[in-house]
Amino acid sequence: MEITVDQKVEAGYTVLPVGSYNGSVTEAKEQEGDKAYYLRIVVQVSEPGEYAGVLIFDNVMVKSKAEEAPPNFQGHLRSLVEATLGEWRNFNSDELVGCDVQVRVKHEQYEGEPQHRVKRFGYSAYGPLPDED
Questions:
Q1: What is the rounded distance in angstroms from the CA atom of residue 51 to the CA atom of residue 20?
Q2: Per-position b or e across 102-125, b if 16+ CB within 10 A of its CB
Q3: Alpha carbon distance 45, 40 (integer Å)
Q4: 4: in domain
Q5: 64 pLDDT exceeds 80?
Q6: Can you state the percent helix, strand and coil of the chain, rounding each to 5?
Q7: What is the CA radius of gyration of the chain?
Q8: Residue 9 within any structural domain of the chain
């Protein structure tokens, strides 16, 4: 199959400014890493409009492979589940897809380049997530 490319498309990655973004979960895939099992989460931004369509990727740890998991190992998972499903409970990863969520983004450096990272998940109906360090 021959694939026609758009010559005007630029390669790159949109680094979102630090802040809160509303969107919906478009993917929640179970993955296995060296030290833990995790969910690969993709959120597509809907608001603010200038960033609509930008994808936010996050790996949310589910279960440690260590005999003793670090304290609050599932804290990030809990913020995701409460924000999308309304309560901290057992769930199937497919339940997350299609759920609205708010994402608080922070910046980190990766190989000398800035990247946005998920700091916290929240429920968008409550208003913007608070600015916190």
A1: 11
A2: bbbbeeeeeeeeeebebbbbbbbe
A3: 16
A4: no
A5: yes
A6: 15, 45, 40
A7: 16
A8: no
Rounded to two decimals, what is the model's pTM?
Answer: 0.81
| First-residue to last-residue Cα distance in the chain | 50
What are 48's two structure tokens?
A: 């603010």
Confidence of residue 24 (pLDDT cuts 50, 70, 90): very high
Q: Which domain holds residue 105?
A: 21-65+73-126
Strands (E) in 2-64, as ranges, are: 19-32, 36-47, 55-64
> Which pLDDT score is estimated for 133?
46
**φ/ψ of residue 85, rounded to 5:** -105, -5
How many domains is the chain built from?
1
